[in-house]
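Let's sit down with a protein and look at its sequence and fold side by side. Once you have written the record down, we can walk along the chain together.
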Amino acid sequence: MFDYIVVGAGFAGSVLAERIASQTQRKVLVIEKRNHIGGNAFDSFDQKGILIHNYGPHIFHTKMEKVWDYLSKFTSWINYHHEVLGLIDGQKVPIPFNINSIHQVFPGTIAETLEKKLINTFGYNKKVPILKLKESDDEDLKFLAEYIYDKVFLGYTLKQWGITPEELDPSVTGRVPVYISKDNRYFQDPYQGMPKEGYTKIFENMLFNKNIKVMLNTDYKEVIKIDFDTGEIKLFNNIFKGKLIYTGALDYFLDYKYGKLPYRSLQFLFEQFDSDLIQEVGTINYPSDYNYTRVTEFKHLTRQVASSTTIVKEFSQDYVPGKNEPYYPIKNDSNQELYRKYKDEVRNMNNIILIGRLAEYQYYDMDMVIAKALKIFDEKILPEGKME
């Protein structure tokens, strides 16, 4: 009945399912353990009629025109440039920490000195990872680095990850650099926006195809059996001769053979207010204050007009399989080595494709997942050709 099975209806699985169904006319079965499509990008209307992101804020941004054009097949856009403030010593300053932030927290002459030295050392409009700035030999820049590290990075990282910035992979700490600019936008990508009808509508448009069948509320292990010694896959107890595209956690895929891969999870607290807006910008970070990491107000993102508003507070926590969801892989050398053991188990199985944040144990932005899915389709699936 099916030529491809896709496990997971997030961006990785949905993009591949859409491409296969529309471009090759082959039959695809999408299996999703949750009761909805869209993965962590799923959004819905709350009881007050506010469009919320059920798994935390998702702001779309990309440098890749190909990705933007592809997604634009399934949505029109609201022009939106995300801004974030961080509560530092009682005042809200732009995040990533930039020249405006410096002038806000330091006296004029000190701020001017720091600004000049940053520009002379690194150049204007440059982004510098905090751990690199800490290595500076200049006493003033070292002072600035220690200030930003203590006030912005350390507390937030400890709350978010449960470890210090030094214990994290540089690719993670480098995601929020010091920005030598007066640009308060959180992202500088040329393509930024929010889907006009929400993310869920994108997935509905992707998966509405006669060649795609979606099964919700289903753990794939209920209907699929895999013999990792022979490579044989059974679907509904029948031999499946097609390919399996897997976007879930790889340790679960292999029954935790080598132990559990560490992730951080999140807990969300949604609150409604009978007012127009209560925050200055979309998101406010709390590096040191309170036990949540950030608060997002959705109406800033969606431009929705309503008499009430909804915020979400995010609390980071350890991931416990079966209890909460794995959100962020904790990337370091030992965890990467554990992941490689799992990947080696399926390396020679040509009928299995691994893709996505969980399957690849990677901290992906949405656009990177979409780009990876399009690449896999072009290189591994399209060459097989269309149905006769």
The chain has twelve helices and 22 strands. The CA atoms of residues 231 and 349 lie 6 Å apart. The first strand starts at residue 4 and ends at 7. The mean pLDDT is 94.
